[in-house]
Design a protein that fits this description.
Elements: E1 7-11, H1 15-26, E2 32-35, H2 38-43, E3 51-56, H3 64-71, E4 79-84, H4 89-97, E5 102-105, H5 110-142, H6 146-156, H7 161-168, H8 172-186, H9 191-200
Parallel strand pairs: 1-2, 1-3, 3-4, 4-5
Helix pairs in contact: 6-8, 6-9, 7-8
């Protein structure tokens, strides 16, 4: 049974590699799930715990780098550590540009592999936290009324209540009421915090008057 704190997903068509990595990583209290192909990995549900993918570059059904390129938009992959028996500089550069934590050549050095996996899990833990926070912010944003959604970018752009009122053709007191409701619904304790939330949500700012 997978514990609730992490999982390492090993994707390699060499069963001996999978077995060896499972035995090795278990000595570091790392939970491992292995796959013999990209298709098996893609059929596995996206982990809901911090994870790392130890991904062989040369898989029988697809190149490991192509796997990430072609599915990145449809699936959120955990952070990746690439492994290969045929390393070269162009491939390693491509892997790092694709966001890989590391690119290791076989035979793998135990210390390098474990360090890379632990770094990947730590990065994925942070990424999961950020995604969860963004999801919550989007939920809060969806709770705003259409008028509140119009007032929000004006407020975070630094417009005064009277300026926002003139922009929308409503009274200053109405803007003030909307502003208070926005702060409450978004869970913002200050204007600065609301501005940070808007930036995370990529809400476009309105030009200051």
């Amino acid at each position: 049974m997978i514990p609730h704190d992490h999982v390492v997903l090993v994707v390699d068509d060499d069963r001996r590699i999978c077995e060896a990595l499972t035995d090795l990583l278990s000595t570091y209290d790392l939970q491992v799930v292995t796959f013999g192909s990209a298709a098996e990995y893609m059929a596995y549900p996206t982990p809901d715990v911090p994870a790392c993918v130890v991904l062989d570059v040369n898989l029988p059904d697809v190149n490991g780098l192509d796997l990430l390129d072609h599915t990145g938009g449809a699936r959120v992959h955990p952070h990746v550590v690439f492994i290969t028996g045929h390393g070269n500089i162009p491939t390693s550069v491509r892997a790092i540009k694709a966001g890989a934590v590391d690119y290791l050549t076989k035979p793998l050095k135990e210390a390098d592999l474990v360090q890379a996996i632990q770094a990947a899990i730590a990065k994925d833990r942070i990424a999961m936290k950020e995604r969860a926070e963004l999801t919550e912010l989007r939920r809060r944003l969806s709770s705003l009324t259409p008028r509140e959604a119009e007032v929000l970018p004006l407020v975070v752009s630094g417009l005064l209540n009277k300026q926002a009122a003139a922009e929308l053709g409503i009274s200053e007191i109405t803007v003030q009421i909307h502003r208070g409701r926005i702060m409450r619904k978004m869970g913002a304790g200050s204007l600065a915090e609301l501005v940070r939330m808007a930036a995370a949500l990529e809400i476009p700012l309105s030009p200051s008057r």
